[in-house]
Amino acid sequence: MERSTAHPTPARVDVPQVGEDTAADHSEQGRRRVWFWLKVVVSVALLGYLTQRYEVDRLSSLLTSAIGGWVVVAVALYLGSHVLNAVRWYRYASELGWAAQRESVLRLYFLGLFVNLFAPGTIAGDIARAFGAGGEGSRASALAGVLAHRLTGLVALLLLAGTAALSQRELPLSSAEMAAVGAVPALAGTLLMIAPALASWIGATSGRELAVPKNWVPATLRTMPLAVAYHALQIGAVVCLARGLSLGVSTATLMFFVPIANVAGMIPVTVSGIGVREAVYVFLLGEVGVDAGRSLALGLLGSGLVLIAGLSGTPAFLTRRSTNSRRVPD
Asked: Cα(319)–Cα(212) distance, rounded to whole angstroms?
């Protein structure tokens, strides 16, 4: 009998192309760094343009005059608003059936605030906390949750702005303008209600999965009061800053202007809206007779609140990094 001389075929081993992944990761990190520094440049340019028109000493004296009890109250209100919003996020996560611990959600929320200071857009931190709260394998559900959470907050903000616009007397509005102001919150609320169907249609047409929770609308309605309270506290913080600067503007007018500045600050072209926020305050408050120096000071103090809130997430960020560094790869 002839002995077979065939050699066994060696098993094929797929070697992961880590070099390609690493290169892609480095490329993505490079793009993020470039985008971040571009935002820094835009913020500095806007602030430079605004401040060159006013004496720095006068602006410094305005900011110094506001340092006191009003600023302390403003910081407390602003940080308190984010604690309340973290509770809203936990309530919303619970409504969606995500198995998330309260302490974990609070940590993830402030981690998101820190991430938003440096991310290309203000939604990056929301996505990070949604993935953490939703668990593994829930990216589509997490994205849908972020969308609903953001839309709920936007509707609440527009409701407050619309109510204030119709009640303030310092900036007269025509009948058409009043109708438009009243229609915006209604349109936003309608969009929120039809968002599940809209998200499903987008997912079907784009070929991307968007796992819209079935209880999207009930969960949104049940957390809406917390969204209104969150934005009311933030507006209250800016009202305190305005009182500290002696702007002489009514609360109703500030309740109308602050949401506009907040929405403008969400545009991802500057670091945390710095520069855009100040420009909006200078323009809007100028319409009711406030000089540009005081308006700019209010914007700078408002940006200070945003930075303080973002930096309050530093402990959560450092804890996350130390936790990840202790993990042992499989």
From this structure: 31
Query: What average pLDDT does the segment 40-58 reach?
Result: 78
Any domain includes 262: yes
Amino acid type, 253: T
Q: Which residues contact 224 (CB under 8 A, 6 or more apart)?
A: 152, 155, 156
Query: Would you say 74 and 305 are in contact if contact means Cβ atoms under 8 Å apart?
Result: yes
The verdict on residue 223 lying in a domain is: yes
0.85 exceeded by pTM: no
Strand, coil or helix: 212: coil
252-311: pLDDT as tens digits: 899 989 998 988 888 878 877 888 999 999 999 988 888 888 899 999 999 999 999 989
Tell me which residue range forms the domain holding 165. 56-311
Task: Give the count of domains, the chain.
Answer: 1
d(CA 56, CA 62): 10
Residue labelled with tokens 């991310």: 119
